[in-house]
Amino acid sequence: MFVVSRHRNIGIAAHIDAGKTTTTERMLFLAGLIHRTGEVHDGNTVTDYLDVEKRRGITVTAAATNLEWTREHVLHSITLIDTPGHVDFTLEVERSMRVLDGAIAVFDASQGVEPQSETVWRQAERHGVPRIAFVNKMDKVGADFAATLEDMRLKLGARVVALQLPWFEDNVFVGLFDVLEQTALRFSHGQTNIPVAYQKAVQEARAQLEAVAAEFDETILEQFANEQSISSATLRRALRLATIAGTLTPVLCGASKANIGVEALLDAVIDYLPSPLESKAVQGWLEDETILEISPDANKPLVAFVFKLLTDPYVGKLAFVRVYQGTLETGATIRNGDTTERIGKLVKLHAKAQHMVQSLEAGEIGAILASKSVTTGDTLVAQTATALRLEAIRIPERVMALTIEPKSRADQAQFSSALQKLLSEDPSLELLADTETGEQRLSGMGELHLEVTIERLLAEHNVEVRVGQPSIAYRETISRPAELEIKHIKQQGGNGQYAKVTIRASPLERGTGIILEDISTGGALPKAYSQAFQKGLTQALNIGLHGYPVTDLRISILDGATHKEDSSEMAFQTAGTQAIRQLLEHTGSHKLEPIMQVDVTTPPDFTGTVIGDLNARRGTIRNLENKGSSSLIRALVPLAELFGYANALRSRTQGRAAFSMVLNGYERT
Fold first, then answer.
1. What would the pLDDT profile of 342-353 be if each residue is shown by its tens digit?
2. What does 469-517 look like in DSSP terms, one character per residue?
3. Structural domains in the chain plus CATH codes
């Protein structure tokens, strides 16, 4: 029986190779869902189930699973989402954070806060998702728990408190100290006394916990001020409230591959992360923009959100849903915008496996067998309820593209069908046709993203394709403000076409995106015509004057005129598509190129070589710091200069350096 107060919806997120999937695998083993643990390098883990994930040893798509965990004799249920660590698949993290109540941030103890660690942390912050941290790989050479905590404070701005301390003997990781309980766990012997040499450090850590908890609980503050004993249960309650409020991050440590510290991590999920009842408030918008508060009450009208699609070759199209309010039941008819859907099948997920259920209650995550009309970001409501929409999923900027076509003309239909399935599953992919050449260009988050998509076409859909060399997904924007009158007037017997709109366009700061607004007065333009005009603008903004998407632009509708017989929504939509070309021709168009933040970790001997190479690639060095036995170089480099950089870096550093990159923004070429 589902008890919402005893449920946790959590995700595991981190930089690539920090140990997310391994940690997930150990959790499933401890919960009794699997009888032997898989290994990422062997390609046999539960959540990395796609062929491409097994071959490459990386997580490509977020996978959900369900487990149960008993804490202090009370059974709890957990829905766990393992997310990718590579920046090219950051949308998987984004849409997971959109529906989670809590998250575990995993860090490599020898690397501290890495670039994608920062990205996923900011994603969690933006969605108000409370976090606990797990410093993994404490058995690795160069592991430094204290340095990782300090890195979190400096780079993430996190208020961190250690719930555990690592126990080392002769530089070997041998155990953990539980700061709350003031106990020790030695891996070869079980629970034991804290050695004299460590007692002071553990006591000081406990005092620090008490001091922090006193800030959030008046009772603890009084006990702390009077030097009274504070129970672990009292401390845990205060720390839980601070964690859920987002003001505190409890930190644990261990080594997942050796199954060290994972049991305590599961306990911490129950102790410190919120149930759906305690999670952030969710708001919905009616068609008239009235805001409604969504309550995690199974007895209220249904509100559910589609956050991911998956095409199963045997089952069909599955839509991953989070039920925020009410109950989603098999056989029920629900509303999806202007359409209705009948729920034919409901499942709970265990990676690629599915278990049929009769209902999903408020607070649960599952999947429905969906029709073609269901897309990522849809809001599902009760059939009798008013149409409602929840917050949309933020799609990251696509930075790279390539031309793509089937190897054989006979495969065109299968190629189109397979590609559309992948596009529906992954909204960070985009397919556009070049109006001049007829070529199809597939855009994505980077080289790896596009490579994986091509591999999936063959592995999952048996479609071979020809692709061109990857190219940069440039952007363009206007060079100066302008005010224009846009006219679309045609008369060809009978009703003609008439649309007239006056607009003002202004360039915006880099990274702002597009702002469309209607500030006309006196009913100059009916709402339906204004919306049609803006729809035309949106379509044309995807392919600007030089074939690149237009960005960083505000377009304001100032005035408009209609004709009693000849005006129509189609006429105004056509005027909108014409407006962008006229605007860019009038103002002039600047081409913008993506600038990447590149982080290179290298042995100090190669620091000068790496910096020289980055400078030669039009890079700007932003920071240089020592991290243990390595140097970390952070630079801003145009993406156009980074093709083949992985091979170049390996050859210049004898294969001893590694790098990662993430989009920093766009600048004029």
1. 888 898 877 667
2. --EE--EEEESS-EEEEEEEEE--SSS-EEEEEEEEEEE--TT--EEEE
3. 4-272 (3.40.50.300), 282-390 (2.40.30.10), 400-473 (3.30.70.870), 476-587 (3.30.230.10), 593-668 (3.30.70.240)
